[in-house]
Write a structure and sequence with these properties.
This protein has 33 helices and 5 strands. With 627 residues, it is mainly alpha-helical. The strands form 2 sheets. A 3-stranded antiparallel beta sheet has the order 3-5-4. Strands 1-2 form a two-stranded antiparallel ribbon. It comes from Desulfofundulus kuznetsovii (strain DSM 6115 / VKM B-1805 / 17) (Desulfotomaculum kuznetsovii).
């Protein structure tokens, strides 16, 4: 009973650790230790105390295992690795390196013993690789972090191994390898796709190199940092020097290149980024891939730092070519101006007479004279649209949006221009930002016309997608119709799955998919037949997915499909090409991994759809799920 209670407390402590509630985790592990004085429990207690900010007390908890005269004290590779991290946090680098060497040696010796005695290495032992790599990362030893990753690559069980290896490669200047590693864990977080982009751009010399930390901030933490930076100049300056924050901001602004917030991000990085920020600013100006709004933000930051001066020609790639652009500060004339209105009215009259080129030159002349009058600029942008000079018109409208981002007229024209340029999503985005309940009748009518046009284009765009969705749903239903006994084996269930589903499952489990489908079936059968693999994968499932497994197991391992879908949701909308896009339903996801199968069985003389857990997985799943 005591052991069971200890296991429950340890499980609770691990959940609390995952959530970042270190004090509550410490309490759970301490209570578990009273029930069963196990080495892993003491390790976890020390980890919780260390993460709560008490490194010296954490070291005291590990002391019984660290006596050099007691080689059989029970220390694990995790014990030594955690001790290394604690020593490093206390500034004791020599001790930290010694403990790291002990951790590596202990892991290697453990590998050798386990391979000889069991012929395999349990999941729980393979988990130690993350903590050992973290210990090397804390010491800033990028080369050793990557060397440990490569040395133990067959034993890694967590995406964190690849993340740490990617950071090490990035800091070593091996940007292509870093990008490949981040790409391989992109399914974990969209952030890693952004990091991949940043690594490629650093490799190409577009973004200046920088060193990032191994510590990952949660989305909640990043949100807090962003909010603090928005209100505090000191915070902006401090966070811009943080390698991980810098990486996050770059990844984010590359994704939302044309947004106002992205421009603010560029300004922050350039203005507060010191020498690196200056290099970034100049690269933004010269690289064709950055939008005009980001280039203007970089110019503003460089001018604010005194690096660029008004009237100074600056190399810039803009309007499809590299040129020297003279920087000028042009005051915005927001108040109505009768003289300027006369010029705008004259330009409109010239337009009506078909003299568009003359009208354009007249309004361009105002801008060359340093008179930035919004009504004149909006008229110029619309004239350029009529001429087909859409990119120049867009540059002007984006400039006007910077001046007055909530102006409904500017937003209306931007939405119209985006529609004309075929940017339907951006057209909708700008349209949805128009917010004023008291529009004049004519403008309100124009808004209705624009919305109908956007809806028409949206429906045209969605039509091929709708056809494809219908095709995918039909193809998946064909698989659901295949014969499947209620007590089907794993091999039998895998035979019903399309080849690309097998490929997707292999990739998800970290297996290199074999060329022939028969070999893929064998890969998956062997993988799922190993208890440690099954335990790991079940541990990473969502709570609802585990509940679905329990539901089936409590009913003998299978159930009619309609009963399952009533309780856990249907497969509708899950599509068919699961190697490209994972199914969204709980049942579909479990099916895609081979943990549950769907098909038609003969029950009481009728063929009905069922969901069933492969026969040989039922007992181990019962044990893992505590049934």
């Amino acid at each position: 009973m005591k052991v069971n209670k200890a296991e429950e407390l340890v499980s609770k402590g691990k959940d609390l650790l995952e959530k970042g509630d270190f004090r509550a985790a410490e309490k759970a592990f301490a209570e578990a230790l009273k029930e069963d004085n196990a080495v892993p429990t003491r390790n976890n207690l020390a980890l919780a105390v260390f993460m709560a900010g008490e490194p010296r007390r954490a070291l005291e908890i590990l002391e019984p295992y660290l006596d050099p005269e007691k080689e059989d004290a029970g220390a694990t590779p995790f014990t030594f690795a955690l001790a290394a991290r604690i020593h490093r946090s206390l500034g004791q680098e020599e001790q930290a390196r010694r403990r790291l060497q002990q951790a590596v040696r202990s892991f290697e010796e453990g590998l050798s013993k386990l391979r000889r005695s069991l012929g395999q290495v349990p999941y729980s032992f393979r988990e130690y690789t993350v903590t050992i790599m973290l210990a090397a990362a804390d010491l800033g030893d990028h080369r050793q972090v990557f060397e440990l990753y490569r040395r133990w690559e067959p034993y890694h069980v967590s995406w964190e191994n690849k993340f740490l290896a990617a950071v090490a490669c990035f800091n070593l200047g091996r940007y292509k390898r870093a990008a490949t590693l981040w790409s391989s864990i992109a399914q974990v977080s969209r952030l890693f796709s952004g990091m991949q982009q940043v690594a490629f751009l650093v490799e190409r010399g577009v973004i200046p190199p920088f060193e990032m930390s191994y510590e990952r901030y949660s989305m909640e933490k990043m949100q807090e940092m962003m909010e603090e930076a928005a209100t505090s100049e000191e915070a902006r300056r401090r966070y811009t020097q943080d390698g991980f924050f810098r990486m996050m901001l770059l990844a984010w602004l590359l994704e939302g290149d044309s947004s106002k917030n992205a421009a603010q991000g560029v300004y922050t990085l350039v203005y507060y980024g010191g020498e690196w920020g200056e290099k970034l600013g100049r690269q933004v100006l010269e690289y064709p891939g950055f939008s005009p709004s980001l280039k203007f933000a970089a110019v503003d930051a460089l001018m604010a730092r005194g690096i660029l001066r008004e009237g100074e020609p600056v190399p810039m790639f803009i309007d499809g070519e590299r040129r020297l652009v003279e920087i000028k500060k042009t005051p915005v004339l927001m108040e109505p101006d009768q003289e300027l209105d006369k010029i705008v009215d004259r330009a409109i009259k010239l337009r009506d007479e078909g003299k568009i080129d003359i009208a354009v030159e007249l309004l361009r002349g105002l801008h060359r004279e340093g008179k930035l009058y919004p009504r004149a600029m909006m008229t110029l942008a619309n004239l350029l649209r009529q001429k087909g000079d859409l990119d120049e018109a867009l540059n002007i409208m984006e400039m006007l949006e910077e001046i007055n981002p909530d102006n409904p007229v500017f937003l209306f024209n931007l939405s119209s221009l985006m529609l004309e340029m075929g940017e339907i999503e951006k057209a909708r985005e700008y349209f949805n930002r128009i917010d004023n309940p008291e529009f004049e009748k004519e403008f309100a009518e124009n808004l209705k016309i624009l919305e109908r046009e956007i809806e028409r284009y949206e429906s045209v765009i969605r039509w091929p997608e709708m056809i494809m969705q219908a095709y995918e749903e039909n193809e998946r239903r064909k698989i659901e119709e295949k014969p499947l006994p209620v007590d089907a084996s794993l091999s039998r269930g895998l035979k019903n799955m399309p080849a690309h589903w097998l490929e997707g499952a292999c990739i998800y489990y970290g297996l290199e998919p074999a060329r022939q489908r028969r070999q893929r079936e064998e890969q998956l059968r062997e993988f799922l037949s190993r208890r440690d693999n099954l335990e790991k994968e079940v541990g990473e499932l969502e709570e609802e997915e585990r509940e679905l497994l329990k539901y089936l197991l409590q009913r003998g391992g299978w159930s009619r499909l309609n009963a399952v879908t009533r309780k856990f949701g249907s497969l509708e909308g899950d599509g068919f090409f699961w190697h490209e896009r994972e199914p969204e339903s709980f049942l579909g996801f479990l099916w895609s991994l081979g943990l549950v199968m769907v098909g038609k069985a003969t029950l009481e003389g009728r063929r009905v759809k069922i969901a069933t857990i492969p026969l040989e997985l039922r007992q181990p799943l019962k044990e893992i799920l505590g049934i």
